[in-house]
Amino acid sequence: MVPILILLFDLDAQHAIGTSLIMIVFTALSASFAYYRQRRIDWQIGLMAATTTAPGAIIGGLTTQYVPPRILSIILGGATFLLAAAMLRRSFRNQKAILSRADLANKHEPRKGIWQRQLTDNTGSVFEYDARIPSGLVFLFLGGLASGFLGLGGGLVVVPIFATLVGLPMHIAVATSMLTMIFTSIAGASTHFLLGNVLIDYTAPLVVGILIGTQLGARTARRLKSTGLERAFAIIVLLIGIVLVIRQILGI
Questions:
Q1: At what angle do helices 226-250 and 69-91 cross, to 10 degrees?
Q2: N or C end of the chain: which has fewer CB within 10 A?
Q3: Are 72 and 80 in contact (CB under 8 A)?
């Protein structure tokens, strides 16, 4: 949303970030409802993550008032590029997230700091995974900081952390990130609203599009294989980061 507001609507970075976070509140609420119906949200991990991402978003929001808009845009472009590159690299690793019921007999021995998780969605698909949530809390705080500072949503910040560092399967990472982002975006949006960075006249038409888009997006995501979803997402974000950095450097 921030690159769209900057590239297409020509907003400065602070107003784009503040307005984007208002949109992310509605995105997270709508998408969370869709993923709740699919039963792909890991509630315990999502709520635990929010305890660190929300304070980070507040601090990040307060920090934006000390950084020039053009520098903010370049930082945003660079951050999205690096996050997308990391996700693209990870997608080529051979990791299987969805297991058949017969495979569930192979249990792992409990390890310190590892949460053994098992989740069955509404289609009967079973996800079994080891979550490293304690070690991921610091990075989740930084993710919240980036969200408040750059107006980034769960897709660009929390999903890579959940998938790469915490160890959630991609489909579970996407769904759970939306729950976490409800609290993260409310914290960040409230901070930016108090700073005067939210443009209310942009919110109504954007909310309508977002409410429709998130429902369609959730339905589309469940039809894609985890690896395909991750690669498609990463490539799109990679291109957005490149365009954003080039535009700011060239001043166009």
A1: 150
A2: C
A3: no
Q: Per residue of the chain (252 residues), what is the pLDDT tens digit?
A: 787 888 788 888 889 889 989 888 988 898 899 899 999 999 999 999 999 999 999 999 999 888 887 787 788 778 777 777 777 776 676 444 444 444 444 444 455 567 788 888 888 888 888 888 777 888 899 889 888 988 877 667 788 788 878 888 888 998 999 999 999 999 999 999 999 999 988 888 888 888 888 778 777 777 777 677 777 777 877 887 787 778 777 766
Distance CA 47, CA 102 (A): 30
* Phi/psi-derived region of residue 118, left when phi > 0, alpha when psi is between -120 and 50, beta in every other case: beta
Looking at the chain, how many residues does it have?
A: 252
Give 133-193 as a 3 state SS string.
HHHHHHHHHHHHHHHHHHCCCCCCCHHHHHHHHHCCCHHHHHHHHHHHHHHHHHHHHHHHH
Give just the sign of the alpha carbon dihedral 147, 134, 222, 178: negative
Cα gap 90→22, rounded to integer Å: 30
d(CA 13, CA 64): 9
Q: Which of 31, 5, 7 is nearest to 245 (CA)?
A: 7
Taking alpha carbons only, the member of 138, 137, 3, 13 closest to residue 63 is: 13
- Best CA proximity match to 193, nearest among 75, 47, 25, 69: 25
Cβ–Cβ contacts within 10 Å for residue 43, how many? 11
